[in-house]
Design a protein that fits this description.
It contains ten helices and two strands. Strands 1-2 form a two-stranded antiparallel sheet. A hairpin with a 2-residue loop joins strand 1 and strand 2.
């Protein structure tokens, strides 16, 4: 598996991955979680963790044995979130999604579905905010929707899974970087407005 390129360590990544796998609700896969958090980090509006953490742990009332366990889990998730914030803030051109790999016929194939499913889940938290991109630059979402939605999977099958995978999976990372760039002016305008009117 490709590892995230910034300070969130391999050990912490593996610890969070194992923790998610043990859970029965919410997001139970680390790659899906990375896709989910990426959409939140690069999207049009800053979302409070209170808005998205319940989606991660699977409901309004988190199921943990005690407060200490919950706080540790939140710290791990926020570590991955902050890692993504850091890379998009400092070196967005270096961003590469984390994908699983599988061997098919002696060659390595990246498994991109989980990441794309997570990204679309993250988008759905702010559907109204994402509408301008969907309207103006739908081609940027195309590779993610192909691998992350039922309609996309039908299109992949109709076009021949292997050929479509070869054509479209390399487009995901460049699309994510372009989506990030698309929203930068919007986010900067929001920041200016907040500085001008901090009470709202």
């Amino acid at each position: 598996m490709n590892q995230p390129p910034f300070p969130f360590s391999d050990e912490t990544f593996d610890e969070l991955a194992a923790w998610l796998e043990r859970r029965s609700t919410g997001i139970t896969d680390i790659v899906e979680l990375e896709g989910f958090l990426t959409a939140i980090v690069i999207g049009p509006n800053t979302l409070s963790p209170n808005a998205w953490l319940p989606k991660v742990w699977g409901g309004k009332a988190p199921k943990f044995k005690d407060l200490e366990e919950m706080n540790h889990f939140i710290a791990l998730v926020m570590g991955l979130y902050n890692d993504l914030v850091l890379i998009f803030d400092q070196a967005p051109d270096r961003f590469r999604p984390t994908f699983y790999e599988s061997k098919v016929g002696g060659r390595r194939v990246q498994i991109v579905d989980e990441w794309c499913v997570g990204f679309l889940k993250g988008m759905r938290l702010d559907s109204a905010g994402w509408k301008p991109l969907k309207r103006q630059r739908p081609e940027l979402l195309k590779p993610i929707e192909l691998f992350g939605s039922k309609a996309g999977w039908r299109e992949l099958k109709a076009g021949g899974d292997e050929a479509m995978h070869r054509r479209w999976s390399p487009k995901i990372a460049p699309a994510v970087r372009a989506i990030h760039a698309y929203w930068i002016p919007h986010r900067l305008a929001q920041e200016r407005q907040l500085r001008a009117d901090p009470l709202h």
